[in-house]
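pinned: reference chain
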Amino acid sequence: MGVGADRRPTRTASGLAIALLSAFSFGLAGPFAASLLAVGWSPLAVALGRLAGTAVLLGVPLALVLARGWRPRAGHLRAVVVYGIVPLAGAQVCYFNAVDHLSVGVALLIEYTAPVLLLGWMWAQGGARPTPATLVGAALAVAGLVLVLDVGRGAEFDVVGVLWGLAAAVCLAAYFRLSADAADENGPPALVLTAGGAIVGSAVVVLVGAVGLLPLTATTTPIALAGWTAPWWVGVVLVAALSTTLAYLTGIAAVGRLGSRLASFVGLSEVLFAVLGAWWLVSQRPTLTQVAGGVLVVAAIALIRWAEPPAVRE
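pinned: its structure tokens
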């Protein structure tokens, strides 16, 4: 008993540190993408760089898992394909298109309305009626989003960008549902789901570009990060290695130490890291109104998650 009690605070502390590292890594995806978009990369090309880079980086660990005798079960292939199409390819393409029209912080906060969308969808499907605290949280999230858009004060606002951001929120809501469905012992391992999904997502992005649904263009023009000029491939490596591969692996480790509830709350710090990263790396400074709206959105999402029944939060 004494040994277990001694280990628990240490495990929690390390889990918090890993969760913050994961949120920091995820949060920088927008600024890295913005540096590539600024020199002529299309959002689809940035998404392909992120997904293909992740597939390459996770290829070796995936090969080791397969070499050690792991074999897929019934339903694993479907889970990987759906995960690759919606949460990976869909979310990346929509989010980067939103960043192409809006500032990084605004695009991410619109995407983070996903818990509100998921709440409404589950209620419409005949789920439990939201608690009063949950409804208050949803209303606060909408009010905070209005402040974030800051239309009347010269903020960088674009209807197309908002629509892309909402589409990213839908994909993120699907990610929550798919992750919950895959969390049981019958689901594929997290490494297989992420690596396989990245491969599927890369193929989907290439197909979208090949048929001309969205432009797939890239340049070799140097990018600017924090006042430093860097080769184009630096942006691709950073968004794939730091903001995807490291972010997902540390996120999985954090959930293992903290549990999904606490880890999800710590994950809200991604918004803060994204805004600060955009300010530092690509000079996107938010207004005070947008900062207030962002705080309100994050607080509203925290309230919604706190108000959910334990089974739903898990």
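why pinned: The first strand starts at residue 223 and ends at 225. The radius of gyration is 19 Å.
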